[in-house]
Specification:
Length: 84
Amino acid sequence: MKKRPDINNALLWEYDLETFDWVKSYKIVIERILQLGNLDEWREMVKFYSNAQIKETVDWSAQLDKRDKEFSLLFLESDYFYAA
């Protein structure tokens, strides 16, 4: 498994990414990608984190509104999401 997802560091601008725990802090990373990430970062998120972690984060998030949560889950299940 990779040490971290290949995403723009600016998505997590307030964290020290040299010491950031990408595994333990998955909710922070996933939430930020869902909010601000581009399609490539969404794909990277799916490669690095499990569908269960992503779905758990969508349910947990207070930052994502109902529409964003529904879109995230729909997009996660779509074939388009995995097309390169």
